[in-house]
Amino acid sequence: MAASYAKNVICALSLNRNALLTRSNSFIVESKRYVRGLRRTPFKVLLPENETGEVLKQSEPAVQSMKRQKELKVTSSTGEHPGESDLFRASGSLKSAHVAATKDHIDGLRFERALPGDKRLGKVVSVARSRTFREHQGKILLEGRRLICDGLNAGARPQMVFFSTVDRLRELPLDKLRGATLVKVKFEDIKIWSDLVAPQGVIAIFSRPDPSRLKFVNTSHSVPLSLICDNIRDPGNLGTMLRCAAAAGCHNVLLTKGCVDAWEPKVLRGAMGAHFRLPIYPSLTWDDIENHLPKSVTVHVADNSCDRSRETEDVQVNASHKPSKAGDYGWVSTKNNPNNMRYQEYDLDSDSDCEDVGLSIPRVDSKLYHESWAQSPTALVVGGETHGLSLEAVQLAKKTSGQRLFIPIVPDVDSLNSAMAASILLFEGRKQLLKLIQTSGRKWKSNAEQQFS
């Protein structure tokens, strides 16, 4: 009896154990399935398979139709017609293609666009600003619409033009820019390399022009009057003198080797286009200057004397039978430099220089500026404010029977600016020459012009 009871208990325990194991297994399985379900993607669309087991892809027309339906829904919601968006997109693509094809052309001229880091503008401007490079490479720099147009109209040959906008380039005569390299740069780059306070956005590099080959306008208004600049070192003074010479109708301007370069940027700004209105011959020796003047010319020199007391001093110097010195005259340099270059200061009253070298200053009569002195083809020599006239200038005046011209000024005033004195004398010479032409007829003017040519 006890054995049978134990047997039944063991069977019951085994059955309960199997049941628990089954439940526990099912729980474990269900829990595993639950966890795996959380880790799965939400869903995956499976395409139908054909008989061979290959997946059938959706056809292209079906995809296009679906996209078309979406576009129709969008256009219907915005109120546009079904074909308007396509039409606009097509026209926009045509416009963009047209702009891409013509963005580097303007009226038949092709131009380049400077890339970031392009150093051509800086290099070219640096070269053009140096007198040594200008003379060796034969280049000049012109900045601004007016000056560039004057150069182009006179026949100067452009090499390279930098501009900030197409409108700036259109302001120039485009037909005269053929053969030049056109480069579009940023305005900020032009501001960096410009000498102007308010840059105009256009800079041009030209070949150094030959004065004898340029085409000058208004030559019919010129008179047989030449300006000789002797050791003018200040760029502003030289630019103003060139501008006055052009305004007075001078036949030409001759610059000695001691003068500042006529194509210096400051000289160009001060001259206001005078370089392209009359011939300017730079870096001339005195022998070259005589070759540029007619044989019957009379050379006068500008004197900084302001009263007649110089005449008495000159008489006393001659009566003393002493060698004439520059300090006795006060209006001519004492240094004798064969190259016409004077870079150091010196004392005009020093006797040692003249006695050692043995200079002999020629005697030249003086005359007031408003008296009659321009009665034939005339040349006027104006010296620099620091060093005055050179010895060669006075010798040339003596050789051509010229005179010293001075402008009276009030006491306690040292002297006039060289550019101001040149303007007064040039316009007075023009007035006297025009009066002579009116009284003698135009025949005299034609003969004088032939002598200057």
UniProtKB/TrEMBL annotation:
Pfam families: MRM3-like_sub_bind (PF22435), SpoU_methylase (PF00588). GO terms for cellular component: cytoplasm. InterPro entries: Alpha/beta_knot_MTases, MRM3-like_sub_bind, Ribosomal_eL30-like_sf, rRNA_Methyltransferase, SpoU_MeTrfase, SpoU_subst-bd, tRNA_m1G_MTases_N. Residues 314-333 are annotated as: Disordered. GO terms for molecular function: RNA binding; RNA methyltransferase activity. It comes from the Eukaryota. One of its GO terms (biological process) is rRNA processing. Residues 141-212 form the RNA 2-O ribose methyltransferase substrate binding domain. The keyword Transferase applies. Keywords: Methyltransferase, rRNA processing, Transferase. Belongs to the class IV-like SAM-binding methyltransferase superfamily. RNA methyltransferase TrmH family. PANTHER family: RRNA METHYLTRANSFERASE 3, RRNA METHYLTRANSFERASE 3, MITOCHONDRIAL. This is rRNA methyltransferase 3A, mitochondrial. It comes from Scomber scombrus.
